[in-house]
Amino acid sequence: MRDLIELIKSTKNIIFDAQLSASVTEKGRSDYVTKVDTTVQSYLREKLYKLRPDALFMGEEGEHEELDKNKACWILDPIDGTTNLIHRYNTSAVSLALLENGEITKGVVYNPFCEQMFYAAKGGGAYLNEERIYVASRENPNDWLIAFGTTPYEKERADYLFELFGRIYKNSGDVRRTGSAALDLCYLAAGMTDGFLEQNLKPWDYAAGSLILKEAGGIITDWENKPVSFYQNSDVLAGNKRVHKMLLAQIGVSID
């Protein structure tokens, strides 16, 4: 893991380059890319190939290889939270995962603005800056802090989603919205929040965070309580066992 951690840390100077972050292209409604995104992706792709020449590559910014489920694959979001970066909101992260035999085996999520390095290897626990982390075990729903994503590129979902978020708000202590699914999953893993949900996320949004969360004792599924896919988009719902069950109930899925 150490080589991956140091590699991801080395992107900090690119991310902090004001000229690159000021170069913005609109991909779609509320969907942006900066030269930070593309520069980080190109830089990491070259370095990752040297680490694992046999591994395929899936990146957010249009650099995809034809996926072969029999081969290892890096899954990269060079900047998760690009809108945050543009607005200098300082809640953005590099998210990198290694997919092997259909499972995520390594995950790293780095927020350079707070120097938060989350990471996990399958079976080895989850960590934040060398300290082992675990999901929270708060018993009282009034103490639960639930994070959510608004699926901002699809405003037609807003009426349904905000009605749902309202119900969740009434059944918890409070809600949060960061604008980075990767960090939301890591904050959940570290016990900073208690649950997270968002629709129609891309694999690079949650691949690394999913492993970090599971290694911290959390649960992540889609909105039908099925495993999330790393080969196509998924609706994501996560928490500890009790919060996960509550979130499923709010969307109409009951489990024993």
Structural write-up:
This protein is α+β, with helices and mostly antiparallel strands and 256 residues long. It folds into two domains: 2-132, 2-Layer Sandwich (Fructose-1,6-Bisphosphatase, Chain A, domain 1); 141-250, D-Maltodextrin-Binding Protein, domain 2 (3-Layer(aba) Sandwich), CATH 3.40.190.80. It contains nine helices and 14 strands. The chain has helices at 2-9, 12-15, 18-21, 35-51, 82-86, 158-170, 181-189, 203-215, 241-250; strands at residues 24-28, 31-34, 56-59, 73-80, 93-100, 103-111, 116-121, 126-128, 131-132, 145-148, 174-176, 195-201, 219-221, 234-239. The strands form three sheets. It has a seven-stranded mixed beta sheet, with helices on both faces. Strand 7 and strand 8 form a beta hairpin. Helix 7 (181-189) packs parallel to helix 8. The longest helix has 17 residues, at 35-51. The protein is globular and about 45 Å long. The model has no long low-confidence stretch (mean pLDDT 94).
